[in-house]
Amino acid sequence: MNTYDVAVIGGGIVGSAIARLLGGTALSVALVEARDDVGDGTSKANTAILHTGFDAKPGTLESRLVARGYDLLGRYAEATGIPVERTGALLVAWTREQLDALPGLRAKAERNGYTACEIVDAAEVYRRVPALGPGALGGLTVPGESVICTWTTNLALATDAVNRGVRLLRGHRVTAVHRGPDATRLVTTAGELSARWVVNAAGLGADALDALFGHDRFTVTPRRGELLVFDKLARPLAPCIVLPVPSSAGKGVLVSPTIYGNVMLGPTAEDLTDKAATGTSEAGLEFLREKGAELMPRLMAEEVTATYAGLRASIGRDDYLIDLDAGQRYLLVGGIRSTGLTAGMAIAEHVADLLKGHLDLVERAGLPAPPRMPNLGEAFPRPYQDAAAIAADPEYGRVVCFCERVTRGEIRDALASVIPPAGVEGLRRRTRAMNGRCQGFYCGARVREIFEGEQK
Amino acid sequence: MTERVRVAVIGGGPAGLTAAATLAPSVDGDVLVLEREPETGGIPRHSDHPGYGLRDLRRFVSGPAYARRLTRRARDAGARLETEAMVTGWAGPRTLEVTSPHGRRLVQADAVVLATGARERPRPARLIPGDRPDGVYTTGQLQNLVHLHHREVGRRAVVVGAELVSWSAVLTLREAGCRTVLMTSEYERPEAYAAFHLPGRLAFGVLVRARTRIVAVNGRGRVTSVDIEDLGTGRRRRVPCDTVITTGDWIPDHELARTGGLEMDAATLGPRVDTSLATSLPGVFAAGNLLHPVDTADVAALDGRHVAAAVLRHLAGDPVPGGGVPLVAEAPLRWVAPQLVRPGGPPPSRGRLLLWADAFRTLPRVTATQDGRVLGRVRLPWPAAPGRVFRVPFSLVADADPAGGPVRLSLE
């Protein structure tokens, strides 16, 4: 049985970021993921926005870490090629009450250290987003809000971790925890391992794992968010992220461009009990259609490319729950909601700060360079457009997925990457293959064949 | 790199291949067919059953045989067929960006024929809620899996839709050893031809439920059941199955038409064309199921033959006449193609207007009116039915006043 200095449980964005950071020290680190692939839980299905943190609750840990994470991930994205589009956001007020709330929101943003917001009138709202439905009274700009690729972020962090020597254990669901004097033994569905320290970044499963450590301090409620993704031809309708003015009923439904060139409408917010309930619902889709018809009627005439549902790990409080238990050599990273995509790298820093007194976290010399990730973003050059790449390797000219223009070369590269996909779904997230408007009508059979051929 | 050709045909299906075969002998210069799949032939390639070629080749052959025959005819006529060549966008009015294993290049053409066809809307576009398990396919993907890739499908299938292509899905499923336990249709009765329908039911023992919609797909990992609702009573029940095929519900592959700035028709979702199949952009033409989603392969092929005349006139320097009278389909007619009648223009392909109806009418009567005046009225011996194209003679609107308002087509 392997004994590690640290086992990080959860291969989502937060767990991968922590493993990457700890992997840069002299410690031995395992990244333990219950599913067959990294980023297969909450991290794969969020709204994929790089948040400034303008609307966080001032003074919270979340507020601080989102603001810090925004800078960290922005820089990391440049270094690794994670696509980011600096679209900016516009909060639109549709009622007098919402309009009156805008100065308060601007003041709140300033308390969060974000000073770039501006209040604009209705004419300016329609100048920025001409396709908006009638009735907008004004708005608040958030120039820094951006769209990002959540899949590539997760993969870059996990790949970087592996390159730094972290042992990635996929398909290892932790089922029992045995605490010893020097190390904790973790029983998983694929064998046992032990670690001196355990970091719980298990997302939706964080409360269950916490209970294995004998705690009873919070419950993760899966909050389902359903989303509609519209065809790329609709993208000109949404030049920036259109946010509702938050109310007591939550953050509401937004219209956002996606990094892949689509338009997204959603999410709904519905507290469930089943942590595997990632299906869409009749009521949810109907609600989104009604909402969309008000927000952007022209969008509703466009084709829907995908519908999906993601689950946020809601814990019934307004902040992250990050807590170190020195006696158990155990650290909980719980309640990381959709802002975790932005905050992930800052959460890792914060975790390292907490661990500093207990472990030697000096960065070791000669770390490998950050991985250069394949670009999945529509706004940046892709292999099918790259004459030099195709000349050097004709496989980059062989388009397999027509809707997303994914080439055979990219699929091959993904299958041979540091963290190869465990299934066709994972291949989708690494390449966009089968993610387009035809959803596999043309390429589904061929992609599956390529995938299985390479598996043999 | 830029290549110059006389005619670029985008799409190597029945319409594109037939257009190329018709044009190549008469055009001084290259007629280049750009096909993004590894083989030309289009959808018939994976429809491995008879039923192709009746109207254009006066033959009755299987889909793959038809695809091979059209490919050979185009090649023998002197057209250049390039496969694995995808047109990804426009670099100018008739300049195409092309990606292939041979490189990235621009193709500049004197005339462009868009023949990009149509596809079925997949499950998300139909907003069918529920889990997202494996085993949910369109007919196209199913046939691709079974006929071209020889893959296993499940044992018990529910087919959503009861159109012609839905029965084609049933055939494919049967060949793959998968029983169709239920077909659902939201219409009052299944859409496919009655003549095909009854033998189909008898031969396959398929239960067809009309006025039924699918309200959920269930299963984690693999489909385990679907929930269906009776539209009359609102009652719901669960049907165990491991495969779901969403059939029909067509949309043109209109990406290039839209990104090229062509005027689009809000009803077909394809480009608006006149009876010669000219689009709103000079030198850009369209043919096949991009214009009428979806008609049979041979009708698409005949469009390809029809468009050639207009392409040749354009290459000879004849301008497309301006003006014209728009045709408008009124509910329960969903769309009409072509949409524009120009003074002095030719009759449409086969002398017929193509329409799509969202309701059943046996012995339907179609009326054409212009500015309140009845232009013509015709009672047809064939039914109007959802799920397939319904044709009326062009003579119905031939007397339209070129200076008048839109001609409205209505179903009585």
UniProtKB/TrEMBL annotation, chain A:
<dbReference type="InterPro" id="IPR052745">
    <property type="entry name" value="G3P_Oxidase/Oxidoreductase"/>
</dbReference>
<feature type="domain" description="FAD dependent oxidoreductase">
    <location>
        <begin position="5"/>
        <end position="354"/>
    </location>
</feature>
<dbReference type="InterPro" id="IPR007419">
    <property type="entry name" value="BFD-like_2Fe2S-bd_dom"/>
</dbReference>
<dbReference type="GO" id="GO:0004368">
    <property type="term" value="F:glycerol-3-phosphate dehydrogenase (quinone) activity"/>
</dbReference>
<dbReference type="InterPro" id="IPR041854">
    <property type="entry name" value="BFD-like_2Fe2S-bd_dom_sf"/>
</dbReference>
<protein>
    <submittedName>
        <fullName>Glycerol-3-phosphate dehydrogenase</fullName>
        <ecNumber>1.1.5.3</ecNumber>
    </submittedName>
</protein>
<feature type="domain" description="BFD-like [2Fe-2S]-binding">
    <location>
        <begin position="399"/>
        <end position="452"/>
    </location>
</feature>
<dbReference type="InterPro" id="IPR036188">
    <property type="entry name" value="FAD/NAD-bd_sf"/>
</dbReference>
<dbReference type="Pfam" id="PF01266">
    <property type="entry name" value="DAO"/>
</dbReference>
<keyword id="KW-0560">Oxidoreductase</keyword>
<dbReference type="Pfam" id="PF04324">
    <property type="entry name" value="Fer2_BFD"/>
</dbReference>
<dbReference type="InterPro" id="IPR006076">
    <property type="entry name" value="FAD-dep_OxRdtase"/>
</dbReference>
UniProtKB/TrEMBL annotation, chain B:
<protein>
    <submittedName>
        <fullName>Thioredoxin reductase</fullName>
    </submittedName>
</protein>
<dbReference type="InterPro" id="IPR023753">
    <property type="entry name" value="FAD/NAD-binding_dom"/>
</dbReference>
<dbReference type="InterPro" id="IPR036188">
    <property type="entry name" value="FAD/NAD-bd_sf"/>
</dbReference>
<keyword id="KW-0560">Oxidoreductase</keyword>
<dbReference type="InterPro" id="IPR051691">
    <property type="entry name" value="Metab_Enz_Cyan_OpOx_G3PDH"/>
</dbReference>
<feature type="domain" description="FAD/NAD(P)-binding">
    <location>
        <begin position="6"/>
        <end position="301"/>
    </location>
</feature>
<dbReference type="Pfam" id="PF07992">
    <property type="entry name" value="Pyr_redox_2"/>
</dbReference>
